[in-house]
Amino acid sequence: MTAHNCIVVTFAESSKAYEALSDIRQATQADRIIVPAAIIAEREPDGHLHLAEGADARIGNGAFSGGLIGMVIGILGGPLGILLGWGAGALAGGFVDIERVNRAETAIGEFSSRLPAGTTAIFAEAREYAPEVLDGLVAPLDGVVVRRPAAEVLAELEAAQEAAKAAHREATRVMRQERRQERKENWDERIARLKERFHRQG
User: CA 172, CA 193: separation in Å to the nearest integer?
Assistant: First the structure.
């Protein structure tokens, strides 16, 4: 039996992230762990996540646009994540925002709170026979592991999508209401001006 997890391993030094990913690749080839997708990303000062390029910065191909890891990275660095309190842009503002995300007690919130500006991380989807394998690979490199069940992360992404739809519906409703109010005000103004003209002519 394997545990299907979404994993973020953070490093203070980017070079150690590359070294760790190389060790993870070797462990995958030795069938000690199954990692269909992994990629190195760095949190930039403005809060966005920059994905590293090159074959030495990833495991798996094409898994980052539509796969679980790609969606996690997308929400952590994008406007929807900020809207829901997960986004890096919000975290770049200061410690108070990080505390707020921590209190959310969500998997993606925890991932985000562990990624302050300047941090390099390995994002990975993995099936683990035992957590000690990955933990043992990254511990000598001062890597800090956060793992959450992939099913839990997927459920949060689905909930985030529904929240985004609801927010869009509410924004659309408010805009329509404001437009109706604006039209009403314009109508009233036009009637008032017309009345004034008739009054003058009379």
Answer: 31
